UniProtKB/TrEMBL annotation:
Domain 4Fe-4S ferredoxin-type residue range list: 42-71
MF annotations from Gene Ontology: 4 iron, 4 sulfur cluster binding; lyase activity; metal ion binding; oxidoreductase activity
InterPro entries: 4Fe4S_Fe-S-bd, Aldolase_TIM, BssD/PflA/YjjW, Organic_radical-activating, Organic_radical_activase, Radical_activat_CS, rSAM, rSAM_sf
Full protein name: Pyruvate formate lyase-activating protein
Residues of the signal peptide: none
Keyword Flavoprotein on entry: no
Organism: Franconibacter pulveris
Keyword Oxidoreductase: yes
Pfam family, any one: Radical_SAM
Cofactor(s) listed: [4Fe-4S] cluster
Domain Radical SAM core, residue spans: 11-290
Keyword terms, alphabetized: 4Fe-4S, Iron, Iron-sulfur, Lyase, Metal-binding, Oxidoreductase, Pyruvate, S-adenosyl-L-methionine
Entry's family note: Belongs to the organic radical-activating enzymes family.
Gene3D superfamilies associated with the record: Aldolase class I
Length: 299
């Protein structure tokens, strides 16, 4: 189950890359900029700005799930079946209704990935699995990495590592680079902001380090969560001292995904403005370099 396939990316690993976005995630980060990626099933998106006043095509197509209250469309998403979603998309003349999520075979995905092999070879690029959490579809992730490795394509995975180790281990023989989020090392704060278990993530980091997996740690800096010197120091210490990672990327918080919550009719629970803390970012870079790491700021 994919929700996007992006060609010619230059931000998700070295060189020019094709990024395959897989649906499904075991975390519920308040600041998530891809809320459409959380569910492992298809999602119906509704953009009210494109909806035609007086049009009742969607209501007549799915009366069991679509209604109007005070001229506003009300969608009972829990009552929608996959076939309902496609029928709604087909009937909507303005594309106010769209579906996020498409089932594809390994063969179909690889056919698209291989189209750009000359670009990978010239730039040192390749394929990156992202999400969501790509290890939530472990068989698909394993097969895509294996097929890419057999085709001589560099492989990378972007992961939050909040999955059982048995989902990760089968992918390692075909993995060239892991871009892994280290959001926090404080268990209580991690759980409060992500609904997850920090110990699971940290244990997976330790196992990956023991397996000599090439890793880059990425730290999203979120106001109120970890955008402070004490948190940055603790995260960087774990990355440098416990798992021996030599490269760390700090990702300042942004709000580019807020509109997606409106399309899904979900509340947005994080800060409404981007992180504006140049002194803190300078501290993060300087402290990581003091620990012997290569540090980068990524927008």
């Amino acid at each position: 189950m994919l929700f996007n396939l992006q060609r010619y990316s230059t931000h998700d690993g070295p060189g020019i890359r094709t990024v395959v976005f897989l649906k499904g995630c075991s975390l519920g980060c308040r600041w998530c900029q891809n809320p459409e990626s959380r569910s492992r099933e298809s999602d119906l998106l509704f953009d009210e700005r494109l909806c035609l006043a007086g049009c009742e095509l969607c209501q007549s197509t799915c009366p069991h799930a679509i209604s109007r209250e005070n001229d506003s469309l009300v969608i009972a998403r829990g009552k929608l079946r996959n076939e309902d979603m496609q029928r709604l998309v087909d009937c909507c003349p303005t594309q106010a209704l769209t579906v996020c999520g498409e089932e594809q075979t390994v063969e179909a995905i690889m056919e698209r990935v291989l189209r750009d092999k000359p670009f990978y070879e010239r730039s040192g690029g390749g394929i990156t699995l992202s999400g969501g959490e790509p290890f939530m579809q472990p068989a698909l992730a394993r097969d895509l990495l294996k097929r890419s490795r057999e085709a001589g394509i560099h492989t990378a995975v972007e992961s939050c590592l909040h999955v059982p180790w048995k989902y990760i281990e089968p992918c390692l023989p075909s993995l060239d680079l892991l871009l892994a989020d280290l959001k926090h090392v404080d268990g209580e704060r991690f759980h409060a902001w992500t609904d997850g278990n920090a110990q699971r993530v940290m244990d997976n980091f330790r196992r990956l380090a023991a397996a000599n997996v090439k890793m880059t740690v990425r730290v999203p800096l979120i106001p109120g969560f970890n955008a402070d010197e004490a948190s940055i120091r603790a995260i960087t210490n774990f990355a440098a001292d416990e798992i021996g990672v030599r490269e760390i990327h700090f990702l300042p918080y942004h709000t580019l995904g807020i509109n997606k919550y409106r399309l899904l009719n979900q509340p947005y629970l994080a800060a409404q403005t981007p992180l504006d803390a140049p002194d803190l970012l300078a501290f993060a870079e300087q402290y990581a370099r003091q620990k012997g790491m290569t540090a980068w700021l990524r927008g």
